[in-house]
């Protein structure tokens, strides 16, 4: 076949098939006979890429021609997952490409499954960044994501006899057909060294070491291919990759030292999603990526607009948590030292340019760096932080009601004990907008961690409730439901998720409810087949699929779900004559490698599953599964099959949650606390269509202040006491009876997460779930009303709010 060059549109099926074969031959170097699935995957992506590239260049040119303001989303994490289905679906080429591949004897679904999951993030924060990139393109906003091209993303989780093992995830092993290395976009990033003063009050920083940041670009395709934006990930490289003189002198290791040291920077994602360990390498990563990104943004601005003083009119930079907060000091350095702007002018530009999003209130999760480390690594930035702090505290001291205690809380330097640089205070001071990610979270920000900064700048904190992209989290992951929705209400919801409300009347339509239930059942059968094949466990698709999938954390209370499972198990055994409602309890999630209790909770879930699943007295009434290696692709498989979504964090501790939104959008009912975005989900879907239980955030705070003791509560709840005692005494760990003694003792003596306090209410809510499930009409009505009312949680809505209220680009 002659070489074909697909133009702006991909040609019809046969031409498309020959284009894919042509790519296979000329790019991969294989013919159709020799090609293996990975070759077909790469050939398909390269072929599709041709169209994407054209739209990508059009998008860039149009923004340039319009002199448009650009959005820059800085994030240490982008949990984007697989891209082929996303790109195919957003370009509306899924059917065409499936047909073309079928003529070649290739199953599209099968090659989609072997695409590695790009897991450059831990959990919610990283996935939010990925949903935002998709929505920015879908809303036709010119935007760049900036991050790090980790060679090893989130570790792969293996279970060894129920214990979590971490294996490196080499997502680049087969090459990455989505990325474009931009050797021309490279920047010098320095570390350490010293600052000397020069003439006219100028300073000079001479770093002791430097690495080169090289850009790798990945296209982010919006819905209907309207726009293609850039995700720019930085890779670290040594300037002088090999010291040939050393090499020739026989010092092979020394010759490659610099290369190794540079590459170590972007080698691995920190698999912690709280309690920052404070390692030097992490601060180096943060500065490396912040510096490269700020240099790139400033270079583009000066090239396009000529005058650095107009930066804030043409660039909005959003900080995804404090991880890139050092960018505030880096921009100040470039504006003052390099562009020679006066400090106050630079500060006004900086604050007008940055916005900061906070994702946690847990004090132990707030980033701060020991001052000696910060100063040694970034001596010039340390001076700048001092100068900002002097200005900040001068301003604060003029405000009535701000006393010494408040000044100490506002300061960029924590002076209690070992002195530390507070990254949240730096991000707050350096931004014109500081937002929380759900209404409750934003109110708690004002009352707790940022109370004093809020008094000083009362207009700065605002709320932007999180959202999820309905393309990936409905259309792509749940084609059955998407087709049914289209039949019922037409296709408009695909362009505007708010239009899902047209579904409301269908909740009362018995024949629609039946079809809706059939789609859910079919998704459950598909998941059951996967679980059977991967874990050897048989599930009953007519049981309630009750699912808790998320990072393992004590505040998320997987332990509450497990203890309630144990209590239910005991009830079924004690009262076999009762009419029990069959349940499947499914758990999945990764624990940070150093988080002892989280790893023990994983082992407990596995031990409980082993015992219950093997108990002939239980049969199909209760099955428990811990699915290994939870990631984006696993979520896409599990969520469409869920009946019940577990969102049971201690009230006040989950900033928002976004998994909660994915489940409800796919027709699961939520059992949850009044925490994070659960509250807003309840407001949207209605009190009758959600199971809310437990203490409120205020009640949690009150109880903590009032000397709450888990021991007293456990003594008063027979069901809880039985379950806790069974676990503590080794019923589920006969090979090591004391394995869970410490974990259970914690509930008696320091139940910080109020598990005992919420247990009875949770168990009662679970029995309400059973009752509703047994009224199929009532359950079906509620499930449909969830789908109908979840459109507001589209990340298009969220991004629209950021665009109008923070970035000024809409
Ligand atoms: C910090 C310093 C050093 C090493 C690691 C980290 C680190 C990394 C990741 C700290 C936190 C994270 C991730 C936090 C996160 O995912 N937060 C979640 O953000 C979601 C999106 O807003 C919310 O929905 C969740 O409630 C919140 O827990």
Automatic annotation (TrEMBL):
Q: Which Gene3D superfamilies match?
A: Glycogen Phosphorylase B
Which PROSITE patterns does UniProt cross-reference here?
PHOSPHORYLASE
Catalysed reaction(s)? [(1->4)-alpha-D-glucosyl](n) + phosphate = [(1->4)-alpha-D-glucosyl](n-1) + alpha-D-glucose 1-phosphate
Identify which cofactors the protein needs according to its UniProt entry.
pyridoxal 5'-phosphate
Query: What are its E.C. numbers?
Result: 2.4.1.1
SUPFAM superfamilies associated with the record: UDP-Glycosyltransferase/glycogen phosphorylase
Q: Where is the signal peptide?
A: none
Q: Which InterPro entries match?
A: Glycg_phsphrylas (IPR011833), Glyco_trans_35 (IPR000811), Pyridoxal_P_attach_site (IPR035090)
List keywords of the entry alphabetically: Carbohydrate metabolism, Glycosyltransferase, Pyridoxal phosphate, Transferase
Q: What does this protein do?
A: Phosphorylase is an important allosteric enzyme in carbohydrate metabolism. Enzymes from different sources differ in their regulatory mechanisms and in their natural substrates. However, all known phosphorylases share catalytic and structural properties.
The family line of this record is: Belongs to the glycogen phosphorylase family.
Q: What name does this protein carry?
A: Alpha-1,4 glucan phosphorylase
């Amino acid at each position: 076949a002659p070489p074909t060059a697909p133009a702006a549109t991909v040609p019809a099926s046969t031409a498309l098939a020959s284009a894919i074969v042509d790519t296979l031959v000329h790019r991969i170097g294989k013919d159709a006979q020799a090609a293996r699935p990975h070759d077909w995957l790469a050939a398909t992506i390269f072929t599709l890429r041709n169209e994407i590239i054209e739209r990508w260049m059009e998008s860039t040119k149009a923004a340039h021609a319009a002199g448009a303001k650009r959005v820059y989303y800085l994030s240490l994490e982008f949990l984007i997952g697989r891209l082929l289905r996303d790109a195919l679906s957003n370009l509306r080429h899924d059917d065409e490409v499936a047909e073309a591949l079928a003529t070649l004897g290739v199953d599209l679904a099968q090659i989609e499954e072997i695409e590695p999951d790009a897991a450059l993030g831990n959990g919610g924060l990283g996935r939010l960044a990925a949903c935002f990139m998709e929505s920015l393109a879908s809303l036709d906003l010119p935007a760049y994501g900036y991050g790090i091209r980790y060679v090893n993303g989130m570790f792969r989780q293996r279970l060894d006899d129920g214990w979590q093992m971490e294996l490196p995830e080499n997502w680049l092993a087969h090459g990455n057909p989505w990325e474009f290395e931009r050797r021309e976009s490279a920047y010098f990033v320095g570390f350490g060294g010293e600052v000397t003063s020069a003439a006219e009050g100028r300073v000079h920083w001479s770093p002791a070491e430097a690495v080169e940041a090289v850009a790798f670009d990945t296209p982010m395709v919006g819905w209907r291919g309207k726009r293609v934006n850039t995700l720019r990930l930085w890779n670290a490289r040594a300037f002088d990759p090999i010291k040939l003189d050393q090499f020739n002198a026989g010092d092979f290791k020394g010759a490659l030292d610099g290369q190794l040291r540079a590459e170590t920077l972007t080698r691995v994602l920190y698999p912690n999603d709280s309690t920052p360990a404070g390692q030097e390498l992490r601060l180096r990563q943060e500065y490396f990526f912040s510096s490269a990104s700020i240099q790139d943004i400033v270079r583009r601005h000066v090239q396009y607009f000529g005058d650095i003083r107009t930066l804030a009119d043409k660039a909005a930079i959003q900080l995804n948590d404090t991880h890139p907060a050092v960018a505030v000091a880096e921009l100040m350095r470039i504006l003052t030292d390099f562009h020679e702007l006066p400090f106050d002018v630079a500060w006004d530009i900086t604050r007008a340019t940055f916005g900061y999003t906070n994702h946690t209130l847990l004090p132990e999760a707030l980033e701060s760096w020991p001052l000696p480390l910060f100063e040694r690594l970034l001596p010039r930035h340390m001076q700048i932080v001092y100068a900002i702090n002097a200005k900040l505290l001068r301003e604060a001291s003029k405000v009535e009601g701000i006393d010494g205690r408040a000044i100490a809380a506002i300061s960029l330097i924590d002076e209690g004990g070992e002195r530390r640089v507070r990254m949240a205070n730096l991000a707050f001071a350096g931004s014109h907008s500081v937002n929380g990610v759900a209404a409750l979270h934003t109110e708690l920000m004002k009352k707790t961690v940022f109370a004093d900064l809020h008094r000083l700048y009362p207009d700065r904190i605002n709320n932007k409730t999180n959202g999820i992209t309905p393309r990936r989290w409905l259309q792509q992951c749940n084609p059955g439901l998407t087709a049914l929705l289209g039949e019922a209400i037409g296709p408009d919801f695909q362009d505007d998720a708010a239009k899902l409300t047209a579904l409301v009347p269908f909740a009362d339509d018995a024949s629609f409810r039946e079809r809706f239930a059939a789609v859910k059942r079919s998704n459950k059968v598909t998941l059951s087949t996967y679980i059977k094949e991967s874990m050897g466990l048989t599930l009953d698709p007519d049981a309630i699929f009750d699912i808790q999938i998320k990072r393992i954390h004590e505040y998320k209370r997987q332990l509450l779900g497990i203890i309630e499972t144990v209590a239910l198990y005991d009830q079924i055994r004690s009262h076999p004559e009762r009419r029990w409602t069959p349940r499947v309890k499914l758990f999945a999630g990764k624990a940070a490698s150093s988080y002892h209790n989280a790893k023990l909770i994983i082992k407990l879930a596995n031990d409980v599953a082993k015992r219950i699943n093997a108990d002939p007295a239980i049969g199909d009434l209760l099955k428990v599964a811990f699915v290994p290696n939870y990631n984006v692709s696993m979520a896409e498989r599990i969520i469409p099959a869920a009946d019940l979504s577990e969102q049971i964090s201690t009230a006040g501790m989950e900033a928002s949650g976004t998994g909660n939104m994915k489940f409800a959008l796919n027709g699961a009912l939520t059992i949850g606390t009044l925490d994070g975005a659960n509250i807003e989900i309840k407001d949207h879907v209605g009190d009758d269509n959600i199971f809310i239980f437990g203490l409120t955030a205020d009640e949690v705070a009150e109880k903590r202040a009032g000397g709450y003791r888990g021991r007293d509560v456990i003594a008063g709840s027979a069901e809880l006491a039985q379950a806790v005692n069974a676990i503590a005494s080794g019923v589920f760990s006969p090979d090591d009876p004391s394995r869970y003694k410490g974990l259970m003792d914690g509930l008696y003596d320091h139940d910080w997460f109020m598990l005992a306090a919420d247990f009875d209410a949770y168990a009662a809510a679970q029995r309400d779930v059973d009752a509703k499930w047994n009224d199929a009409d009532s359950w079906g009505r509620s499930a449909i009303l969830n789908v109908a009312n979840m459109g507001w949680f589209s990340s298009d809505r969220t991004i629209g709010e950021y665009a109008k209220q923070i970035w000024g680009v809409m």
